[in-house]
Amino acid sequence: MHRFRSIVLLVMALSAAPASADDALESAIAEVERLAVTAHWRESNAGIEALHPRRGAMSDHQRHRIDYVASRNRALAGDHLGALEDLGRLLQQAVEPDLHVRAYTTAISVAANVEDWPLAFRWLGQALERMPEASAPAASRVHGVASYLLVLAGESNIARFHATRALAMAEAEGAIRETCLALSEMGLVEDHAGNYREAERWRRRQIDACGKAGDPVFTAIGHYGVGKMLNRQGRHAEALVQTRRALEVHGKSGYLSGTWGARMVVAESLIASGGDLDEAGHLLAGALDYYREEGIHFAIAEAEEHMARLAEARDDLPEAVRYYQLAMASQAAAERDVRERRVAYLQLEFDTRVKEQQIALLEAEAEVAALQASATRRRQWLLAAGMGGLLATALLLTGLLRRSFLERKRYRWQSEHDSLTGLYNYQQLRKLGEQAFQQARTRAAAFTAIVADIDRFKDVNDRHGHAAGDEALRSLGGWITGVVGDAGIAGRSGGDEFSILLEADAAAAEVLLQRLRDRVEPITVFGQTVHFSISAGTCQSNGDIDSLEELIHEADQALYRAKQQGRDRVVHASGEPRAASRGASLVVVGSGIDFGRHASERCLSEIREAEVVFCLVDPFALAMIRGIHPDAIDLGVHYATGKDRRETYRGMDAAIMQALHAGHRVCAVFYGHPGVFADVPHAVVRKAREAGIPARMEPGVSSEACLYADLGIDPGRWGVQSMEATQFLVHDRRPDPAGLLLLWQVALSGDLACTRFHAEREGLQSLVDKLLHCYPPDHQVILYEAARLPIETFRAERVALRDLPEARYQEYTTLVVPPLHREGGVAEDAARAAFA
């Protein structure tokens, strides 16, 4: 009767007087939309058919509304592929923003139903871009469908954010239907997170809100969700009541997907509560047929697991084992679907640069979590079915080993490649390049290095945003991959700089670079067109070049000249005077304790201008220095456990002197002040001057300077005795207890072999014994460590002298011994100042 009443209303509206024809047409379209929202999709389709003769009189917006309702009705009727085709055509047209966003949300849901995850996530990305143009209720729907997809991709936390955002926007606008939909997404998020009581609470709110909105389908989905959560809590009788309500509404509306989902939960409740097993078997058999036809593997696995439990309830153990085995196979297919959703989600994240550097880690975490869940579930099934434990364990271990092998293979790839461009990273480029360079030298073959970067890359970032800069780097990396192929080794050296190594002469390198420059074209990011060019420098090996590092350095210098000559060009290093011919020189600079704050402009300038840079600094400073000079050499590699530090220092000397004898301008960067408690800086300056090479040392901020500032001590007030702890211990040095005593590297006290880097109780006790000759056992001393990063705080731990052997030490811990307290004297003021 309702269908005929709706059709009569439509006919009456369309036959109205001409003066009200437009209003009548609009009223008829609104009635078609209302019927669709209230789940009377058959009546809605009848209304669309009645409106067909008037289609020519409709505006574009009215036709788009009718097309959207028809597509949505088609999806509700179960024709998902046809609905996708219709929605795809609608999305390509110039549609009003709110309707466009609604079409996107429906299209995404339908694409998810047919498990076309790349399409669903691509449309989600487009919907998020269009969202700012839409109203708050429409934007709420985008957040809702984003939550739905992210739940399926295993991103519960991000899904909860979108669902919460959708609910807040809908409630703020008083949008009843959007509130209904957002509550549904909140229930789904908590369901997948395993928070069943919380999910039940959201589903009950959904029933109230969707009832007020006049949406029977989502009201029924709320009852279905409550029933499912009650089952998870063991309240099967209550669950049966809720789910039968959902089944009744879905059956009347003809919503097949909801009907079969409700039937399966009814069956689950009947089995768990010992109800009508025949009815449960009938419901599950129908659901299994439907889901197999639709190819929904997760639902198939769930239905087969319920069939196994039904067989157990009937004491048919062989049948139960058979269904458990089927469920395991279906679960494996479902896990593949989850991975496909995960890959589609990560692709969306990658394209929008939301989590560019975290994609590999997120994917690994998701796969490990899926593996753990899968292993747990399989063990439970095998135990419940009574299958052979030994055989099952062997099969499971085989799967785990295979997955572990694949994981190691993937992690190895990630460790060798740049995550943004897919090219080799700096370390792998040098590793492979060294092998190729040595092989070319053995065969006396030509070998050429190319160093290229994007012209005015900072302007690209500043003008168009970092997303444009990332896309420029990614595009250039792809063009380099296509041009180089297997003919050479290509990698990203850092920032916007790329290196290419070829076993070929400079002419072949020029041909390759020309092909690369021909490929460079403008890119489009978020509707902006970005133009850029590249410059490159090349150098072919010859008898004067002994190492790959030197070859790349010459190519880098040629790139520098290309920049000076106007950019967008290639400059060859061959045939030009080498930079080293200007004469070798050495400058030793200090990085300070905290490089980011203490490095002077002179220090930074020397690093930039040097041909070869050596570093003995902490990892944070080394990373920052390599940002200025990517070829910086870490002297820390000379250290080794059990190795005599004096031997280590001579190895550092030899490396620096080798670069000087090769004619290079060398800058050596040392931690703190390069001339304080430092053997190598003084040694190389002396050796360089003896060899007639200009050498000088620039000061830096030392740990002692930080100590005075952090502890509030003025060394000029009472005098300072400063020496290395082992030197103080071994030699006959008696301190003046009226003055301040600083003992450096106290952890290494007594290390005459110069081989350890940790504290030993015996050496510390010997140090305490010597100090007890001048200070009482309870004299308060300070263990000081300077802060190496702006986010750190310095350490100033006060302990009694007698307790030093039990304290905690780093290699660089300094012992501060304040002056003894003397009544009315200067020492009293000094002691107070030291502890202020």
TrEMBL record:
Molecular function per GO: diguanylate cyclase activity; methyltransferase activity
Gene3D superfamilies according to UniProt: 3.30.70.270, Cobalt-precorrin-4 Transmethylase, Domain 1, Tetratricopeptide repeat domain
Its EC number(s): 2.7.7.65
GO biological process: cell adhesion involved in single-species biofilm formation; negative regulation of bacterial-type flagellum-dependent cell motility
Class of enzymatic activity (EC top level): transferase
Keyword annotations of the record: Signal
Keyword Signal annotated: yes
Span of the signal peptide: 1-21
InterPro entries registered for this protein in UniProt: 4pyrrol_Mease (IPR000878), 4pyrrol_Methylase_sf (IPR035996), 4pyrrole_Mease_sub1 (IPR014777), Diguanylate_Cyclase (IPR050469), GGDEF_dom (IPR000160), Nucleotide_cyclase (IPR029787), Rev_trsase/Diguanyl_cyclase (IPR043128), TPR-like_helical_dom_sf (IPR011990)
Keyword Signal: yes
GO cellular component: plasma membrane
Record-annotated GGDEF domain positions: 445-575
Reaction catalyzed: 2 GTP = 3',3'-c-di-GMP + 2 diphosphate
Name of the protein in its database record: diguanylate cyclase
Organism: Luteimonas aestuarii
